[in-house]
Amino acid sequence: xxxxxxxxxxxxxxxxxxxxxxxxxxxxxxxxxxxxxxxxxxxxxxxxxxxxxxxxxxxxxxxxxxxxxxxxxxxxxxxxxxxxxxxxxxxxxxxxxxxxxxxxxxxxxxxxxxxxxxxxxxxxxxxxxxxxxxxxxxxxxxxxxxxxxxxxxxxxxxxxxxxxxxxxxxxxxxxxxxxxxxxxxxxxxxxxxxxxxxxxxxxxxxxxxxxxxxxxxxxxxxxxxxxxxxxxxxxxxxxxxxxxxxxxxxxxxxxxxxxxxxxxxxxxxxxxxxxxxxxxxxxxxxxxxxxxxxxxxxxxxxxxxxxxxxxxxxxxxxxxxxxxxxxxxxxx
Length: 332
Fold this sequence. Notes:
This protein has 332 residues and is mostly helical.
């Protein structure tokens, strides 16, 4: 029996078919993105402009980074409902570190990201060691994070008035004469990091292996519990980065909100071809899914569609994404 830590084995026919299906799903998602862009470009002359494309990229940054981290968790067959409120809590902690405690900006940012890792670590321990189902474990963390954000902030926003450098993390334009925010560049960097982790490291191999067949992975000598904790912790790092960028974008840490972002992130992951049953997924697909969600929301807003109908549209997209995942699994 070939060890999962050995070199790449020859591709069998089922693996080749599975890979082709994954690539087809990505192509379909990309084609859908192009169709949506064309539709909104025809529907509104204000859509396909440089400033609006930049706005779409900025809007996709936070949700996209959350989706990147969630991709690892979903590939293992898990789920994380705490990423939205966890992001809010990390932003609040950045406000505490920088505004209340007076930490240097680098220390405050690292502290907020580390707090996100801590949230992921606790989720991992609950799932791997205490054997709490991921849905319940992360649902509980979602409520805990929402409550802590309100308690720590005193239910009031924390403004970064005395830390202009922090505000620049998301909003600073890094290309002269063109509005290309630093936050988008950070998003691209996080995409590269996530892609390398998933496709070029033992971390990625174990992520796929756990999602494909956890029992067989454990029998092959892999410490599944340890790697689950690592995977949830890495996902938490992405939550921390998203929290820093969200707070920087608003120039304040808002203790309310966050609920609902986890659904958008999960929808982006599933639209991109990652299976909710685990074992399949890619970073490229997740990025395409995040862009679809951002373009859809932006286009509806530009067309002056009421907020309530925007929510209906996003909900329908989530239902469609999950149904397509069910059809993919039936076809396997």
